[in-house]
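Risk register update: the risk of archive-format incompatibility is retired. Evidence:
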Amino acid sequence: MKPVPSLQKPAAGVFRAFKSGLLERPTIVPGDRVLAACSGGPDSVALVCLLFMLRQETPVDVVVAHFDHRLRAESGVDEEFVRELARERRLPFVAGSADVRAHAAENRMNLEEAGRVLRYRFLQAEADRIRATKIATGHTMNDQAETFLMRLMRGTGLAGLAGIPPIQAAGPCLIVRPLLGLTRARILAFLEEQGQAFRTDATNLDRRNLRNRIRLGLLPDLERSYEPRIVEHLARTASLAREEDELLTEFVRELGQTFLLRENREVCLDARGLPADLPALSRRVLREFLREVRGDLRSISYEDVASVLGLKDGKERALPGGPTLVREKGWIKVKGKRAAPRPFRLSWNGQERLDVAVAGMEFEGSRRKPAERAASRKSDLETAVLDASKLAFPLVVRNRRPGDLYRPLGAPGRKKLKEILRAKGVAREERDRLPVFCSGGEIVWVPGLPVAGKFKVTPKTKTVFVIEKK
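Archived output:
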């Protein structure tokens, strides 16, 4: 690899555009610690280079992360390339890997979906471990245009046409995409001007993949034969669709409450009250209902929504990934829903094993020196590492309550615990069963989320208290 070059004029134009994009949407701000995902390809390599330049004039920390999907024999070379890229710039480097092919077969996913799930799982875990405030990926304007065309071909609404969001709350750590305002052509020109090498993934040339056919065939043909600026125009259309979808979503979220009935922690949808002459409104209200009972809308298609709206009394519909919905006397609800757990409140001194039977979980606590704290890198679902001096024992362990506020480590402020769990994709039923660990009336930790910022371990910590799910 070549030495880090100095900033030159053509590269400066790309860097200025990069910084301008950060100002339009505050994706990265002073004080951020950014975990930059880098595969070794041109887009992600450019991301690392631009973040390194930004770091030289703005107080941000940058950590480079590489994930090996184990799909190609040369993937180990990619990791070494990215490691060297980070070393040349004196940036911290982290790496992870998983058997994507095995995960796809086990969970009946295609390779692309399985890779995305495992990659983001790794990134979120690393972001939590290093206390990152943002995860940055190298998606460009071309990726946005390709996504727009893919979804258009398959049939979608405004939400689908909105494409790749520049800022996404898909977990405890925000995901940002600061290159969406740059075309791949400008990225390649930037790398050439900088004399910066990158890796080429041969799977990106496989035309059996729809995205590759669009990237290698359809988009270049549209540029040559129809509209030279097609990539920019499609990206702008996606941006407009996203803004209008966000507006409609907020409107429907408020209006949709008039069609929902909540009783004994169960939510039902009044199908009879949905306006038959406004099918778009009916679909959106139903989607909000599904979001509440499922936690997210992943894998929910137009056909799924239409079939639920068309249910007759006594009929049911099983959704991909659950649950099964049934219509009874004009109301749509979850079939066979387990009874909501009774409120529970346990007192725990942190010494004996804690059995939270309602949640089906057991926990153990231990006190350790900071240097001895767990190095297993378990996920937030399984472990919490806290400053013991900030805890007041016994801890109170209870289920979620209305109005609970929580500020996970790295978050800008306190938010409703319900909204945090909902954004993470935790179904309503499971939210009510999760144990909430409290000290002095404040939430310390909820399995699946980072520990509360107030109780974090600092360089001054003398003893840590570790909670581990068994």
